[in-house]
Amino acid sequence: MMKLLGRLTSLNVRKVMWTAALLDLDLDREDWGMGFRSPQQPEFLALNPNALVPVLIDGDFALWESNSICRYLATQRYATTLLPTEAQARATVEQWMDWQAGELNNSWRVAFMALVRGQPATPEAIEAGVASWNRHMGMLEAQLRKTGAYVCGGDLTLADVVLGLSAQRWKNAPIARVELPAVEAWLERLAGAPGFADYVGNGMP
């Protein structure tokens, strides 16, 4: 059985666990990270020199970066709906996954870490962060209006997995949100997917 190192309070761990649920795949998860075993320990650093969760262990193979882990699991299970094999369809899914990991995550970092995690930040920085977060979520809104269903079209893909967790964080954050009806309708569609209640709609930030 594959093993996942990381605490469930981590959004990046939950995206991997949700992917596994969609694939009907059991992962042996161990708690590592904030409040648990430190990823600064030598045995963890040997697996991931970034000292960040999650890390997937599959036999002698170790993999870090949550979106890469999600891709690996889908490929292992030949889940061509979650991760298409056709070049352009796959590139589109990976484009939105990369956007989530880079642009969208960077947009919410200051506001979320200040308002939810309690890290220091000026009111001006928080206000700018909220505005950036809402603006980026507006890009997702525009894409969902275009597709009318899921991020990349008519099927649920890994793009929906990683962005679904990010959107749920935005929805639950103590901020002034813009109205995004397509995002709200999409989250309702995602709520019927296996694992959503456990890893997305569970109230965790």
Automatic annotation (TrEMBL):
Residue ranges of domain GST C-terminal in the record: 86-205
InterPro entries attached to this UniProt entry: Glutathione-S-Trfase_C-like, Glutathione-S-Trfase_C_sf, Glutathione_S-Trfase, Glutathione_S-Trfase_N, Thioredoxin-like_sf
Gene3D superfamilies: 1.20.1050.10, Glutaredoxin
Enzyme class, broadest EC rank: transferase
Annotated EC: 2.5.1.18
Keywords: Transferase
Domain of life of the organism encoding this protein: Bacteria
The keyword Ribonucleoprotein is annotated on this UniProt entry: no
Residue intervals of the GST N-terminal domain: 1-81
Name by which UniProt lists this protein: Glutathione S-transferase
Annotated organism of origin: Roseateles asaccharophilus
